[in-house]
Amino acid sequence: MRAVLAADIETSIADALQSISHTHPADFVQALKAAHARESKGPARHALLQLLVNSRLSAQARRPVCQDTGVVHVYARIGMDLRIRHDGPGPTPSLQTLANRAVARAYGCPGNPLRASMIRDPLDARRNTGDNTPAIVQVEMVEGDGLTLTVVAKGGGGDVKTRYAMLNPSDSVADWVLSQLPGMGAGWCPPGVLGLGVGGSPEQAVALAKRALFHPIDMPALLERGAVTAEERLRIDVYQRVNALGIGAQGLGGDTTVLDVKVATAASHAALLPVALVPNCAATRFVTFDMPAAGPAALPPPDPATWDGIPDALPAQEGIRVNLDALTQAEVSAWAAGDTLLLSGKLLTGRDAAHKRMADLLDRGQPLPVPLRGRTLYYVGPVDPVDGEAVGPAGPTTATRMDKFLPQLLAQTGLLATIGKAERGPQAIDAIKQHGAAYLSAVGGAAYLVARTVRSARVVAFADLGMEAIYEFEVQDMPVTVAVDARGRSVHAVFPVRTVPPA
Fold it and tell me: Which residues contact 460 (CB under 8 A, 6 or more apart)?
């Protein structure tokens, strides 16, 4: 009976998590390159360029491609004839224990610390576990004596857009997917990959959809040879119809919204058609490997040629230069939706937990720990820095989660502008228009590139919140787009989603 050492499994998972944090799969980079080459819309083309430059720089620096370094998923296919051997004291640790140990090691690595995003008690204080544990472990027992592991770091921006429905057997799966995309917005950081799970039980359909994502992108080859199976026909149908919607990179309007569509199916009850949709974002991070007979798995090093043709920096940008330290209401009012801004000076950060605390203080009539009058607030939870960095990767988080707090902040604090990713909802847009403020959009998935514009960073309030504390960043030429201007005009409305009939 073949045996694999438990310590080698732990080390292999930890090594994989470090590798995927900063290195995109080669097929994903090639798909982004192709999307950039064919993109006809300027804003989307520039967003794609930022994603490509960020990918190259992250791989070179071995620093995370995205500040959301993900929830760890470990999918294990274990042969029935395999034994996991433990040479230490006590009983053999479970795969859950090994995965948790690996996550703690990888996310606490001094040379490349990763952001801890997991909270322990979702219905109570929502305290961060501090080391990003626990991992999500799924085990499949198969014939043989092998052990295949798929290690994934799945960002929250994609998972939050998960959709599920119980359709009638005669309903069109493709039509259902098309009905979901406009309402999903751009918070999942397109372009990415869509995973579809069809059949099985309700929970199985969602699991199928997610796991379908962790396969190489092969849509160009499929389009060239043509579909053979029903699953392949669905993949092509959804791929072509979704891209025809014109949502585009970052929701800015463009030719490529999805790079591929993956479909997984399972047997189901004759009266049911469970369907689930899970997107993968521009921070696609996973690797699959077989455990060797001895020692940890040796992950192949990335091929530097993967990033050939991608520059080391964005070209010199044209845009409106903004001094955040002297920003006025009149200046904000002069911006128009779609304008490119280059921000320099000091801005504050704050996301979900910090907003809740600020709202509670305002409700009680108490002062905020940091005045917001005349300031700009960036929705971000950064990665811890390493030597030479002011801050670790610091890309934007989804702005709509802060929509319910925005009317109060604009009305009571004198806040002038906010920065995040994707669109804002009607409640936030109405408040922006009423108070003459602005919402600025940064590119989700380009976190290391953004961090290079940060010259200094310090925590100024709510330090106990960890990555959700309020920081003050000093930035130089941070590129953003005016997504909602002071008149309430939204850049996302400039490129409306078009209704596309079935193929």
Answer: 348, 369, 370, 470, 471, 472
Q: Residues 195, 198, 200, 204: what is their CA dihedral angle, to the nearest 10 degrees? A: 20
State residue 341 phi and psi, 5-degree precision: -115, 150
441-459 confidence digits (pLDDT tens): 999 999 999 999 999 999 9
pLDDT at 502 (0 to 100): 47
Tokens 């490509």 locate to 52
In a domain, 45, yes or no: no
| Residue 362 C-alpha from the chain's centroid | 31
One domain, residues 114 and 165: no
The CA-based dihedral angle spanning residues 192, 235, 73, 303, taken in that order and rounded to the nearest 10 degrees: -60
pLDDT, residue 437, reads: 98
DSSP-derived pairing of the beta strands 83-85 and 3-5: parallel
The model carries a pTM of 0.92
The string of pLDDT tens digits covering residues 24-55 is 999 999 999 999 999 999 989 999 999 999 99
Q: Which residue, 154, 189, 223, sits at the end of a domain?
A: 154
Instruction: Among 272, 291, 310, identify where a domain stops.
Output: 291
CA nearest 28: which of 233, 247, 230, 256? 256
Number of domains in the chain: 3
